[in-house]
Amino acid sequence: MGSTLVKRILERGWDRVDTGGKHSGLLNAMYTAGLTAWFHEKIGEVLASPVITHPNIADSSSRIRPLILAGKVAEAKHANEIFHRERVAAGGVTQHTTAKSTHGWVFADTAYMVAPSQAIIGNHDFAIGELKGFHTMLAQEDGLLRHVFNASVPVEETYIGIDLWIDGTAWGRASGWWLAGVVDSLEAIPEAEWDRELVAMYEKTVARATECQDGGLWHATIDDPYSLIDTSATVMIAYALNKGYQLGLGGEAAERASFTALEAVLCQHFDWRTSILRHQQFGPMVVNIPSPNPRYLDAGNAYGQGFLAALFALASDGVRVRDLGARSLQRVG
């Protein structure tokens, strides 16, 4: 049974659910924290409506992972068939939305929305290919991820090259999405099948992200210490570092960084009366606005609530990743 604090954090997040990605982040945290009865109750709510929806097809596909964790294999496989039939690819990876206005746009968010669900349903090569593709397309040379790239136009046909970046900043949540996507995918894939190149990409991004940590926290523009602190990026990255360490990735420095992050958000940015994580960068957004103006801050956003709950379960409630049983259907079938 999960802790009362974790449940309260997740309740506040569920109040703000409006996309499939927010559903999955909270559901994954419920499963991680051992809130079993509540997890199955909320899975029932998800199944009351179509699982795969447009235009947010990538977001909605992230529900496949918690469906499998809940034993809803037939429903997950049906959703997966729809996803693969209706997904749109750009630059060799899944396009975030099917909206005509975002034709060719590749979002870092999609690394978390698509790959873990594909890994746990048994499409290991597809999941690994997505994660490597996003990193190749979106990462700076130092490994930090940028947010949105327009892959619909060949580079030789651009005006000045950088005009293909819808948002080319090293966005904190972008690195968080990708890192979390990697650990949630590798958790389900047998270690003997892990891709060495993907692991090297992960280690590179972790090393640079750890260098950018500022007083336990990460900034909205992760490599710009003058940009606003973003607690949602902080808990996303810290979750990935802690889980990755339990999987044998990242090393002790990464684990220490995850605990430092948890301590910082709980001491400085958490409302203990309401269980709300404050000072999250607002969203949804297309272009990162790193201004410290309070108008660009949010409290209680489902992304931050979900990843804070999962981080707390791993770091403070003693949850061991390998005991969770998040194994792919290919592995158990």
Strand and helix layout:
Elements lengths: L3 H11 L5 H14 L2 H12 L9 H5 L2 H6 L3 H14 L2 E2 L2 E2 L10 E3 L2 H12 L2 H15 L7 E5 L14 E6 L1 H15 L9 H17 L18 H16 L4 H18 L1 E2 L4 E2 L2 E2 L15 E2 L3 H14 L13 H4 L1
Antiparallel strand pairs: 1-2, 3-4, 4-5, 6-7, 8-9
Helix pairs in contact: 1-2, 1-13, 2-3, 2-13, 7-8, 7-9, 8-9, 9-11, 11-12, 11-13
**Text of the CATH class:** Mainly Alpha
State the helix count: 14
Report on the biggest sheet.
3 strands, antiparallel
Helix content: 40-55%
The structural class is mainly alpha
Instruction: Give the SSE string.
Output: HHHHHHEEEHHEEHHHHEEEEHH
Strand segment count: 9
What's the architecture in CATH terms? Alpha/alpha barrel
CATH topology: Glycosyltransferase
User: What's the mean pLDDT score?
Assistant: 96
User: What separation lies between the terminal Cα atoms?
Assistant: 28 Å
Strand content: 5-15%
